[in-house]
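Quick start: what a row looks like.
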Amino acid sequence: MDRRVFLSTVASVGTTVAIAGCIGGSAQEDYDIGMSTNRFRPNTFEVEPGTTVVWQNTSKQGHTITAYGDDIPDEAEYWASGGFDSESDAREAWRSSTGGLITQGKTFEHEFTTLGTHSYVCIPHEADGMSGAIVVTENPSNDQ
């Protein structure tokens, strides 16, 4: 095969593959909130009552999703990765055995039924400011 013909063929195939990747070749995301090294993305997320929110650890770091017990509506049930009944239980489990840990690629989900702001944190990255909020409202304004 002529070297120039070979190189032009390889170059055009590579360009086609690169362009295909830019015009929608990626898979649809199966989560609402991703976790980077020390941030929830997005940090604040609005939903209607009855919506199940899915977090996915999209980083190599381990994370928790832990509701701030004093910063969720009074009527709401407590929630945290690991299924703990209170923030103090979640913190103790993290300290003693990394309880509630979400590893890379794993998910956690929770259904939100109570109107109001539900604030939460990643315990191991709390000092880095890794916190977020789910706002349950009748009229969410997320670009979904």
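That is the whole record. Residues 1-28 have pLDDT under 50 and may be disordered. The chain has one domain: 33-136.
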